[in-house]
Design brief:
This protein is 32% helix and 26% strand. The radius of gyration is 29 Å and the shape is elongated.
C-alpha cells in the first residue's frame, strides 16, 4: 500500500515446492511474462534480506490476482504450500473469485481437501499443451496483463546457476547416428514387357518382401530383373528401362518419371526405412507403432528381465540393461530408425522405452493406453543419466549386430544397406567438468532402473 492506496492485484502467484518444482517454474514463468503477465515465484522473486515468509504471504494476500498451484503429491504435502492453499482458500471467498486457485497438474496427485473440486490444467501430458490451455483460461477469465512485455532475466540466470561449467578443451562425443557404409550404386526402373492390369500390379507390390515403389505402370527397386520377375510371377514380366546412380537420383530426381529431387529422396528414404524394419522383424524384435514411425524393442528373445548385455568393441567392455522392472512395470528399450542423406548418408536412432505389466516370469502385452505409457516414461526414465541412455543404445546395437561390425539391411535378395554398428563420433570444441568414465556399478546404479524407486518418485 502506497499513500493509503491499495496496490493493484495484477500478479500471477505460483505456489510451488523447492527444489522439486524449480525446473517447471523456470520454464513456465518467463513464458507467462512473455504474454504480458506479472509473475511471482519464491525461486527468485525474493531479495537478500527479505523476510521470505512474510513477503510470500503478503504478495499472495495483497497482490495476487490468481494463484497457480503446482500439483503433485510431494508439492501438496509441503508445509509451506499447504499454508498458501489455506490463504488462497480464504481469498476465494473474500475477493470473491471462485476460480482464484488454478491447479496445474504436473503429475498424478491425490486430491487435497479444499482444492479437490477445482478443475486442473493438465501439464502432465506435455508442458506446451498445458501452457496453451492455461493462457486460454487466463484470457477467458480476463486476467489483467500489460502490453509492455518485460521478461525478468533472473529466470535464466538462476537456471544457469545449476548448469555444468564448461572447459575450453575439445571432447569426443558419441552421436546417435549410424553411418551408411555401403549401399547399391544405382536404383532401377522396370516396366512390364507386355500388357498389365495396374490394380493387380498395385496389389502385388503390397505383397513383395523387399522394397518397391510403383510409378505409373513401372517399378522402382534395387532388385535385379530375375528377382523382380520371381516376385511378380503371377502378374507380369519386366524389362529394365532405366538405371539411375543412387546419389544423383536422390539429389536431382528423375524428370522423365515426373520425380523432382525431393520426391526421389522420399522414395529412397522409404525404401531404406522398410529395409530397417525388415531387418528388425527378422531378429524378432517387438514391433510397436508410434504416431509417425515404428519402434522395435528388445524382447525376451534377446534379453531376460534384469540381464546385463555386454557392449564395447574397443577398450573396456561394459554392460547395460535393456529390460527390467521399475515401479511395478516392465520397461523395454528400443529404437526408431530414421534414414537421412544429408550431410552424408546415415540413419538416426531415436531411443524408445515401452512399458508392460509383469506376467509370470516376464512381461505381458504392452499397455495400450498412450497416456499411461507417457506418464511411465516421464516417471521411470526421469532418473536416467546420459551415460545410461548411451549404454542402452550401445547394448541395443550389440544385440542387433552380434559378432559383426555392420548391420545388413535387405533392399532385395541381392542388395542391402550396410550400417556401421557403432555410432559416429563427433568432436566438440568444449567439454564439461563431469567425469568421462563410470564404473559398471555406477552405470546401473540409478534406483529407477533397478526396480527400487526413490520415495519421492512414487506415484
Amino acid at each position: 500500500m502506497q499513500n493509503g492506496t491499495p496496490e493493484p492485484r495484477d500478479i500471477l502467484f505460483i505456489s510451488k515446492a523447492t527444489p522439486g518444482d524449480n525446473e517447471f517454474v523456470l520454464w513456465l514463468a518467463p513464458r507467462l511474462e512473455a504474454e504480458g503477465y506479472k509473475v511471482f515465484a519464491d525461486i527468485l522473486s525474493l531479495e537478500p534480506g527479505d523476510r521470505w515468509r512474510r513477503e510470500i504471504t503478503g504478495t499472495l494476500q495483497n497482490r495476487a490476482i490468481k494463484m497457480l498451484l503446482c500439483c503433485r503429491d510431494a508439492t501438496l504435502n509441503a508445509e509451506g504450500v499447504q499454508e498458501e492453499i489455506g490463504i488462497a482458500s480464504d481469498l476465494v471467498k473474500e475477493l470473491p473469485d471462485p476460480k482464484f486457485i488454478i491447479p496445474l497438474r504436473i503429475e498424478k496427485y491425490k486430491k487435497l481437501f479444499g482444492i479437490g473440486e477445482f478443475q486442473y490444467i493438465n501439464f502432465e501430458s506435455g508442458w506446451a499443451q498445458g501452457l496453451d490451455k492455461l493462457l486460454d483460461t487466463l484470457r477467458r477469465q480476463k486476467v489483467v496483463k500489460s502490453n509492455n512485455v518485460t521478461i525478468n532475466p533472473n529466470w535464466e540466470i538462476f537456471r544457469r546457476r545449476g548448469a555444468i561449467p564448461l572447459k575450453q578443451e575439445p571432447e569426443r562425443l558419441t552421436s546417435n547416428w549410424l553411418r551408411i557404409a555401403q549401399a547399391p550404386d544405382a536404383i532401377r526402373f522396370f516396366e512390364p514387357s507386355g500388357a498389365v492390369n495396374r490394380d493387380a500390379l498395385e496389389r502385388a507390390c503390397g505383397k513383395v518382401t523387399f522394397p518397391v515403389n510403383q510409378n505409373h505402370t513401372g517399378i522402382l527397386t534395387f532388385a535385379a530383373l530375375e528377382e523382380l520377375d520371381a516376385a511378380f510371377l503371377d502378374v507380369c514380366r519386366f524389362k529394365l528401362t532405366r538405371e539411375y546412380p543412387l546419389l544423383e537420383f536422390i539429389e536431382k530426381g528423375a524428370p522423365e518419371l515426373g520425380l523432382q529431387g525431393q520426391d526421389a529422396s522420399n522414395i529412397a528414404h522409404s525404401m531404406f526405412r522398410q529395409a530397417w524394419e525388415a531387418f528388425c522383424r527378422k531378429h524378432n524384435l517387438y514391433e510397436r507403432k508410434y504416431s509417425n514411425a515404428l519402434g522395435f524393442h528388445v524382447s525376451v528373445a534377446q534379453a531376460a528381465i534384469g540381464q546385463k548385455v555386454p557392449w564395447g568393441r574397443q577398450g573396456d567392455r561394459r554392460s547395460s540393461m535393456l529390460r527390467n522392472i521399475a515401479k511395478g512395470v516392465v520397461w523395454q528399450f528400443g529404437a526408431t530408425a530414421l534414414p537421412a542423406f544429408w550431410p552424408f548418408p546415415h540413419f538416426k536412432l531415436k531411443s524408445r522405452v515401452l512399458f508392460a505389466p509383469p506376467e509370470g516370469r516376464d512381461a505381458g502385452e504392452p499397455f495400450d493406453d498412450y497416456m499411461k505409457q507417457h506418464r511411465l516414461r516421464r516417471s521411470v526414465c526421469k532418473g536416467w543419466r546420459n551415460k545410461q541412455w548411451h549404454g542402452r543404445l550401445m547394448a541395443y546395437l550389440e544385440v542387433l549386430a552380434g559378432d559383426g561390425s555392420y548391420l545388413r539391411l535387405p533392399l532385395s535378395p541381392s542388395a542391402f544397406v550396410g550400417l556401421e554398428a557403432s555410432p559416429i563420433l563427433f568432436t566438440s570444441p568444449v567439454s564439461t567438468v563431469l567425469p568421462n568414465t563410470l564404473t559398471d556399478d555406477d552405470e546401473e546404479g540409478d534406483a529407477s532402473t533397478l526396480g527400487r524407486p526413490d520415495p519421492e518418485d512414487d506415484q
